[in-house]
TrEMBL record:
InterPro entries: Acyl_CoA_acyltransferase, GNAT_dom, Ribosomal_N-acetyltransferase. This is GNAT family N-acetyltransferase. It comes from the Eukaryota. Pfam families: Acetyltransf_3 (PF13302). It comes from Phanerochaete sordida. One of its GO terms (molecular function) is protein N-terminal-serine acetyltransferase activity. Gene3D superfamilies: 3.40.630.30. Residues 27-190 form the N-acetyltransferase domain.
Length: 228
């Protein structure tokens, strides 16, 4: 859409149990890095190489946030006040991970991505509440038509999480992504110009405005009103 521009204002989204705060390296990098550094399995299904240091997280986050169409949030579990990693105070709650809303504004489309929920917060209210908040932002405030979710088809945990929130499977895009060297994936053919970088077959799921207005908005409201 020629001439269409999206300008973001920083925003916080929250319920009684979770806050999505704009990612701030000085507040969030160290507890996030300490959370992921002990769990290399978190990178099994991501196109992101494992972070070697807190500085590596900062460099990655800076690249993410340099794109004005990406909103990167820290997920703050408000039920765990004072429960930060050793040496960290957590007056508002513990850093439970990160998530982003990535927009394609000229197509009125968004994507929920860059989702890392730390192991101590998995299978709790954290992921579902974060996704619900982003869906409400996307459809009720930004008036997007479509929000998508991408993952490898074999990542059943991610697929289930998306489907629980109303996302519908649309199909697999084969060889959709080239990942950094060292990140697992499908082996390219002999003579490939990037032989050290594997490829990913990516499953697309989506929830659209008519799904939202057809019942998922009300279901999401119920999720956001839960205290745990």
């Amino acid at each position: 859409m020629p001439g269409y521009e999206q300008k973001y204002e920083p925003c916080e989204l929250e319920t009684a149990v979770l806050k999505l705060a704009p990612y701030t390296p000085s507040l969030h990098t160290r507890p996030f890095f300490e959370g992921v550094s002990k769990h290399p399995e978190l990178f099994r299904w991501t196109p992101t190489a494992r972070f070697a240091s807190a500085d590596g997280v900062d460099d990655w986050a800076a690249k993410v946030m340099a794109d004005p169409c990406r909103r990167l949030f820290a997920m703050i579990d408000k039920t765990r006040v004072g429960a930060g990693p050793a040496g960290h105070s957590a007056p508002e709650g513990a850093v439970a991970g990160i998530v982003a809303l990535i927009e394609t504004p000229d197509q009125l489309m968004g994507e929920i991505g860059l989702l890392f929920t730390l192991p101590a917060f998995q299978r709790t209210h954290v992921t579902r509440t974060a996704v619900a908040l982003l869906l409400r932002l996307a459809f009720d405030e930004l008036n997007l038509r479509r929000v998508q979710w991408r993952c490898q088809a074999e990542n059943t945990a991610s697929v289930r999480a998306a489907e629980r929130m109303g996302f519908q499977k649309e199909g697999v895009h084969r060889w959709n992504r080239v990942v950094p060297p060292g990140v697992p994936g499908n082996t390219p053919r002999e003579g490939d110009p990037m032989p050290e970088s594997m490829g990913l077959h990516v499953l697309f799921l989506a929830i659209c405005w008519d799904d939202w207005e057809g019942g998922w908005a009300e279901r999401t409201k119920g999720l956001l009103e839960k205290h745990v």
